[in-house]
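Predict both folds.
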Amino acid sequence: MTNAAQSIDLQAVDAYLSEQLPGYGGPLTAQKFETGQSNPTFLLQTPEKKYVLRRKPPGVLLKSAHAVDREFRVQKALEGSDVPVAAMHVLCQDDAVIGSDFYVMEHVDGRIFTDPTMPDETPQARTAIMDEMNRVLAALHSVDINRAGLSDYGPEGNYFERQITRWTKQYRASETHDIPGMNALIEALPKAMPPDDGQRTLVHGDYRIDNLIYAHEGSACLAVLDWELSTIGHPYADLAAVIMQWQMPPGREGRGLAGIDRAALGLPSDGAFIADYCERRGLPRIERFGFYLSFTFFRMAGILQGVAKRAQDGNASNPEHAERLGRYVPLFAQHGLEALDR
């Protein structure tokens, strides 16, 4: 039986877009992107234009997960800002069309660096690309959420307290076997939480270089992708997520920089990236960064556990890849515990 997450009803999508999207004209073809474990993503192509469709996966889902309506809303709000996003076209919340919510957006033609070492680039190009990544992150956290109409995009209160509670529940709901490291991390994180410093900004939730589209020439970022985990929260969660990813092994699976001679490749050190970010936002030195780093390892472990559970339940976008990702949960838990000791 074909996994419903692997395909879409082209006839239904074609009919819907013919009615809802000005200038649209079929016939329509679709190809599923290999990336996008959470919300299946498809390249739509007509004789005249390309689009991208992102859908909520079918089946029974965790509460508040896969909110494609939120992805649509935040990107729509950011159009024309210093944070580059794809243009949003239509949001469909009628399950009768293809079985779940979906939205259609502009197809942005550019480069995605799945490997942060960027092996085909020069050291100078890598430096510029990473600096642009830093600029966009600082711009994202500098968005005036009131002017953007996003002040209600996330609840008030301590972001980290809220997130730890949420992801503990999500993890327990998708737990497939006992992982002692996760149990220890769940117990330790709340005790290590710094006092709330009052920062309340838009946060992406999964900010890393392979969620950015760059121009084919030069270092300009054309769009930030994958806004599913975005909310109003604390900006250090995004910053720590970048540093977390770099602690992973290099290569297709880890997509990290562990053991890499960054200076020789023109890549920034953790400290240099953090310092540049702070300078752009006019911030002092960040105290107790180990907690923020530990939190991002914990949250990613929770995300990967959810991916593994969907693979077990038959709802994963890419079941084989999802199962492999689930094996990283103990490693992320261990890294989270180690970060607390820094």
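Second protein follows, with its predicted structure tokens after the sequence.
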Amino acid sequence: MSRDKRKKKYMVNFKERTEEAKKVRKIVSIIVITIAVLLIVGAASLFFYVNSAMKPVDPDSEEEVTIEVPIGSSTSTIASILEENGLIRNALVFRMYVKFHNETDFQAGEYTFTPSMEMKEMVDSLKNGIVMAEPVHRITIPEGLSMDQIAEIYADSLHFTKEDFLEKVNDRAYLEELMEQYPNLLTEDILDEEIRTPLEGYLFASTYDFYKEEPEIETIVQKMLTETEKLITEYRAELDEQGWTVHESITFASLVEKEAGEVEQRNEIAGVFYNRMEEGMPLQTDPTVLYALGEHKERVLYEDLDIESPYNTYVVEALPIGPISNFAESSLEAVANPKQSDYLYFLHDADGNIHYAETYEEHLKNRNEHMD
């Protein structure tokens, strides 16, 4: 091939490669521009979407929506509850907001919000445990009450009867559901055939707020069990160290509650009970006799002490089969941290004072001096 032909062929190939390179650069430029436009449009759309999702669902709404945030709820769970109840537009955006602002330590409880609230308002309320409306009902359950008495208090204030409440808390299927919900609190112990009332002692004494005109019995029971579970969790290490199961701890706390009228008496009384159990002595506490009898009496008679019952601590060894009432935190704390002493006996005088003794002879002396 001549030199001119080779040169001509080279120029043709060069021209073709140049044209091809131009086409590739043009295609690449179009792709880059397209991607950039899509990114910009996507970012703008995402921004507007997130910004919109963070706004109140309905700025003009005055509707009050009550939600329950269970104990131990994750941010995802809370976000789902808010979205399902129409209080936020998007659960994912709520989670992003919480993570971006590093918000933590949301409080379990019942809250009343409105669709007109800002997301920040809800987050602040959830962090501080602040409800946004006055309760419809505020009911106080004192310490030392039986299930029967608790049912009566609720029936006096709410829409159901005492019998309705007792039927629910004694329903086997319902109890099994609760055992699944509260596995660290409710065990097979409550289903023992000799237990009179399975949830006796487990419904914590406190003041409860309800934001519905007619709260369900299930809601009431769960609120009370949640409070008991929180308290048991707080003292679990000390109770484990003492060797008590949850059921035994609650049973023991109920005895201390019924025997001690004053908070400052409880640790010492718990210590006496510990000493009696270590000696292999029966606890011989009169409130268990009254519970076994199923009636209130001003004075327990000698003939009452022989009643055959798994609750009667004059008959059974150590603790009764189950709690005989609910209890205050101070009673559970006394079980977890009893006062050390050598006392084996105590009695109450007419003024509410307690007199302790190390021996039965001293106890008889105290009885002669301080009892009518």
